[in-house]
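Technical annex, item 7. During the second reporting period the consortium partners agreed on a shared format for inverse folding records so that results from different sites could be compared directly. Each record opens with the tokenized structure and is followed by the designed sequence. A conforming record, contributed by the partner at site C, is shown below for reference.
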């Protein structure tokens, strides 16, 4: 029996560690993208390379990164990764050429790539079964707040620390110095939180020869009658989400809202996700998770369809926040489903496989969306996003029926 007080204290530490490190990295990578655009004379190609080699690259290294979480003690691994990432951002703070900024940022992104998959994997070891939904809600709230606050903070800090249109290169480097060092400090604090969190981060992994190897997470997930359809469904849903992310600027422009409207769309979806994560942690249970996951995918599709056909900007904003809320609620349910069906010996690699699916699907959506939005307008992207949600619901349905005991096991 796990001490409930110690368990909750540990989960809150892990959640806060993820919040500050994600917020710091979000701010740092947003600032870096703006720096690269300005330092290279307005080159979108450099911005694209920056996003690919910082955020995108993590999808390609997840199989190895998540394997580390199943091979080594997770607490020591997370502390080590946090400290190495802190060192990487310290080095990045003193780079003064675009090519070196990009090289060091890429290496640092690879270093920090195990964090999400591994930190999610420790949660079932920290709490009893009855507290798992609450714990996943706490982690999701931390992740969503970090993802929301980070990019907004990065853009704001660059504007304050490097004013001008365009700002001088010296001012940009000074802004980068401050932001990158602040992110290094966030990783150092995260390392301390991980090192001092009570409870065990890993179980006894002796035996289990069937779970050996880097590919074990993908093999396990794709052979499971519940996890396989969920992963395939998310691949479709996130492909559509990639279209929507590309179209958000154009959608705000369509309603005459400009940069402020674009920021509002992003903030409302992120704020809704925080609210949904909190509610998921409060109200979800084992039995409710399959239904919640199905409803969240279907409701997100409805929200995107409303945005696609809405003639009114306020309705777009309401639907955007509602879509974020149901997505956040569903993400807590998804974590519970995966954690309950995945043994500790392979859990990090399963999470890593899911992260790879997410990032690759988004990347494909990013690549396809530009010509579509240019040719047919931003509403078309939301129609595609809604269609992806509907298809995802249908793909996921057999697995959730299986989980609820309404279909024979395979």
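Designed sequence (site C submission):
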């Amino acid at each position: 029996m796990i001490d409930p007080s110690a368990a909750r204290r540990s989960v809150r530490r892990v959640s806060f560690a993820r919040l500050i490190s994600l917020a710091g990295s979000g701010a740092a990578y947003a600032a870096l993208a703006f720096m690269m655009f300005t330092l290279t004379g307005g080159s979108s190609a450099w911005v694209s390379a920056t996003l690919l080699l910082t955020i995108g690259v993590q999808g390609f290294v997840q199989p190895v990164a998540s394997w580390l979480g199943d091979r080594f003690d997770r607490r020591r691994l997370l502390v080590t990764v946090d400290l190495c990432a802190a060192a990487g951002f310290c080095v990045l703070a003193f780079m003064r050429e675009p090519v070196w900024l990009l090289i060091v940022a890429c290496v640092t992104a690879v270093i920090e790539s195990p964090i999400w998959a591994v930190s999610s994997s420790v949660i079932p070891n920290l709490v009893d079964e009855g507290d798992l939904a609450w714990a996943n809600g706490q982690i999701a709230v931390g992740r969503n707040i970090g993802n929301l606050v980070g990019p907004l903070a990065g853009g704001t800090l660059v504007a304050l620390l490097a004013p001008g249109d365009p700002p001088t290169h010296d001012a940009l480097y000074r802004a980068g110095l401050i932001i990158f060092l602040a992110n290094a400090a966030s990783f150092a604090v995260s390392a301390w939180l991980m090192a001092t969190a009570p409870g065990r981060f890993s179980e006894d992994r002796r035996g289990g020869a069937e779970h050996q190897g880097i590919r074990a997470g993908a093999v396990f997930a794709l052979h499971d009658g519940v996890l396989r359809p969920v992963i395939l469904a998310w691949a479709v849903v996130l492909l559509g989400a990639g279209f929507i992310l590309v179209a958000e600027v154009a959608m705000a422009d369509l309603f005459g809202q400009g940069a402020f409207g674009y920021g509002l769309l992003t903030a409302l979806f992120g704020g809704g996700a925080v609210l949904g994560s909190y509610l998921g942690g409060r109200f979800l249970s084992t039995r409710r998770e399959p239904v919640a996951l199905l409803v969240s995918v279907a409701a997100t599709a409805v929200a995107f369809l409303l945005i696609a056909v809405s003639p009114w900007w306020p309705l777009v904003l309401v639907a955007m926040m509602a879509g974020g809320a149901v997505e956040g609620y569903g993400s807590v349910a998804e974590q519970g489903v995966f954690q309950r069906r995945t043994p500790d010996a392979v859990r990090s690699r399963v999470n890593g496989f899911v992260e790879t699916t997410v990032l690759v699907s988004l990347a494909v959506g990013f690549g396809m969306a530009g010509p579509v939005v240019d040719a047919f307008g931003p509403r078309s992207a939301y129609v595609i996003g809604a269609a992806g949600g509907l298809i995802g619901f249908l793909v996921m349905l057999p697995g959730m029926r299986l989980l609820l005991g309404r279909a024979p096991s395979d």
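The two ends are 33 Å apart (CA to CA). DSSP finds 15 helices and no strands in the chain. All partners now use this format for quarterly exchanges.
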